[in-house]
From TrEMBL:
Biological classification of the source: Bacteria, Pseudomonadati, Thermodesulfobacteriota, Desulfobacteria, Desulfobacterales
UniProt xrefs under NCBIfam families: reco
The family this protein is said to belong to: Belongs to the RecO family.
Pfam families: RecO_C (PF02565), RecO_N (PF11967)
DNA replication/recombination mediator RecO N-terminal domain segment(s): 1-81
InterPro entries for the chain: ARFGAP/RecO, DNA_rep/recomb_RecO_N, NA-bd_OB-fold, RecO, RecO_C
Entries under Gene3D superfamilies matching the protein: Nucleic acid-binding proteins, Recombination protein O, C-terminal domain
Recorded superkingdom: Bacteria
Role summary: Involved in DNA repair and RecF pathway recombination.
The keyword DNA repair is annotated on this UniProt entry: yes
Keywords, in A-Z order: DNA damage, DNA recombination, DNA repair
Protein name from the UniProt record: DNA repair protein RecO
Gene Ontology BP term (one): DNA recombination
Length: 258
């Protein structure tokens, strides 16, 4: 019976029957793949507790004999358990939010190397504390949107194309419905569903969107820019997706409590 082997990040797991788990992975070879782990709830030894959200591992599977059945997970070799995320409530909140965005947007069986690299980068930095979690989330969100083809242009007015530096005002309107910046001249008279963001924050967001990931830790955001970036991206993404993002509601709640 033929099978496949690939590296993958656990996106989610659900219980199936009394003994089995259905685990959805974001894999390097095939994008999103759901597999069935037989007896995973009973036989702790076989998967050694590896099948937890955001764990990274190599997995070996067998293709099913029946059409429409899920591949069978035979063995895993855990590479990064990211235990420091799991034991920290706010870090877990951020990681769950990123996982939900990925899980809801990637296609089954379609390889997405850059997106995989991005998710792996932010999880690793979150686990190792090499960057602030708030900044990592801005980095993830803006690059996620870019790679998903949703990225708004944060460098010029979406109506008249005036560049950011050519706008007289300090705070610029970001229009949620149109998904773009609107300069004061174009905004006149119209009621808009959006927020205003300072030029400095917009430039920093563009920088983390375009820079090499390995240089991303050089960015410094002021607390005010972090809050503005958070407000912009965490409002725009659900608005653009057209639905609530459950894990974002959870993240906001624990962030406020902490
Ligand atoms: Zn304009």
């Amino acid at each position: 019976m033929s099978g496949f082997s690939t590296d993958g990040i656990v996106l989610k797991r659900i219980e199936y029957g009394d003994n089995d788990l259905i685990v959805t992975f974001f894999t390097t070879a095939m994008g999103r793949v759901s597999v069935i782990a037989k007896n995973a709830k009973k036989s702790v030894k076989r998967f050694a507790g590896a099948l937890e959200p955001f764990s990274v591992m190599n997995l070996e599977c067998t293709w099913p004999r029946r059409k429409n059945a899920l591949p069978l997970l035979n063995a895993v070799d855990l590479s990064y358990p990211f235990a420091k995320i799991r034991t920290h409530t706010v870090k877990t909140g951020y990681a769950c939010y990123w996982l939900e965005l990925i899980n809801s947007s990637i296609e089954e069986g379609k390889k997405q190397g850059e997106l995989y690299e991005l998710l792996f980068f932010v999880l690793q930095a979150l686990d190792a504390d090499t960057m602030d979690k708030e900044i990592l989330s801005l980095l993830f969100q803006i690059r996620f949107m870019n790679l998903s083809g949703l990225c708004p242009d944060l460098t010029s007015c979406g109506t008249c194309s005036t560049p950011l530096d050519g706008m007289a005002q300090h705070r610029i309107i970001f229009d949620f419905a149109q998904g773009c910046l609107v300069c004061d001249r174009c905004a006149k008279g119209a009621v808009r569903h959006g927020i205003t963001v300072t030029k400095g924050t917009l430039k920093q967001l563009s920088w983390i969107n375009n820079t090499d990931l390995r240089r991303a830790d050089r960015i410094r955001f002021s607390p005010c820019a972090v809050r503005e970036g958070e407000r912009l991206l965490e409002s725009f993404i659900p608005c653009h997706l057209g639905r609530e993002v459950n894990s974002l509601t959870f993240l906001r709640r624990i962030r406020e409590a902490g």
